[in-house]
Write a structure and sequence with these properties.
Layout lengths: L7 H13 L3 E3 L1 H6 L9 E8 L3 H13 L5 E4 L6 H9 L3 E6 L1 H4 L4 H16 L6 E4 L11 H4 L13 E2 L10 E4 L29 H9 L5 E6 L8 H25 L9
Parallel strand pairs: 1-2, 2-3, 2-8, 3-4, 4-5, 5-6, 7-8
Helix pairs in contact: 1-8
Length: 269
């Protein structure tokens, strides 16, 4: 076994912990399509953003299906492949669009929605898409979610969508955990990967083993887990590459935080 918190073995232990803790797994579409009173008492919404390495995502999807777990896979235009999304749906998973059209349009609302509509049509030729989720680009001054919230923005229903993974979930009721930054703990490394509006978090975890322990103990009644498949290694060489890559990206994020944080006004005597 590879000794690291972001390996295939560690992920399987996380799934086993959720099973032992008595959680039901929901896709994002399941959550949004079900009235609050009809949802399970204890559940986890399992979500994957497929930013890179489609092979890792396919492997993860098969491991989940072997355990009877259904998850939501948000696919970018750059990781979209008809055979891949067909495989995901055949395994029982939800496929959604991981959009980045507002950033690509440099904040132009009309251009962003033209791009979004075109990409959504492409996806729907090959799979059902009921929900979408923004891709966070820490280098851009724009937030892709703003294409839904600025004045005059279209609504999800106009696209036949149930909603958006960040904007449409109740994160007061659902505790959000993300592996962004190679940690499950909230903080400066999650520049765009955060919930919007009110949220409450009574428990937190940094390492995967800590999160698994919380799930085994049933310490989170209702949760949402964001797992990036490319981060979870299946071999020592892959582990070393991903660990180095995350380290370099985290260094850039810390630098961006310093640059963007306004300096306090200087005092004069």
């Amino acid at each position: 076994m590879i000794a690291d918190g972001f390996t295939t073995e560690a992920y399987l232990d996380l799934l086993d912990a959720a099973d032992e803790g008595g959680y039901d797994f929901l896709t994002v579409a399941d959550y949004l399509a079900t009235a609050p009173e009809d949802r399970p008492e204890r559940f986890l919404v399992l979500r994957h953003d497929v930013d890179r390495k489609v092979g890792n995502a396919a492997r993860m999807a098969r491991l989940e299906a072997d355990r009877g777990v259904e998850a939501t896979y948000y696919v970018r235009t750059g990781t979209f492949d008809p055979e891949f999304v067909h495989t995901l749906e055949a395994l029982g998973h939800e496929v959604g669009y991981h959009y980045e059209d507002y950033v690509r349009a440099d904040g132009d609302l009309d251009d962003a929605h033209d791009r979004f509509a075109r990409h959504l049509r492409l996806f729907r030729r090959h799979c059902d898409v009921e929900t979408v989720c923004m891709h966070g680009n820490p280098l851009s001054p724009h937030d892709n979610r703003d294409m839904w919230t600025v004045p005059g923005a279209p609504e999800f229903a106009g696209y036949g969508l149930l909603g958006e993974a960040y904007l449409s979930m109740d994160f007061v009721d659902v505790t959000y955990f993300s592996d962004t930054g190679r940690t499950w703990r909230d903080g400066a490394l999650k520049i765009k990967d955060h919930t919007v509006g009110d949220s409450a978090k009574a428990v937190s975890a940094g390492e995967t083993a800590e999160l698994a322990a919380l799930l085994r103990a049933g310490a989170v009644e209702r949760g949402c887990l964001l797992v990036h498949p490319e981060r979870w290694a299946d071999s020592v060489p892959e582990l070393l590459v991903e660990r180095s890559k995350d380290g370099a990206i985290n260094a850039v994020k810390r630098g961006l935080r310093l640059v963007r944080t306004p300096s306090p006004p200087s005092s004069t005597s």
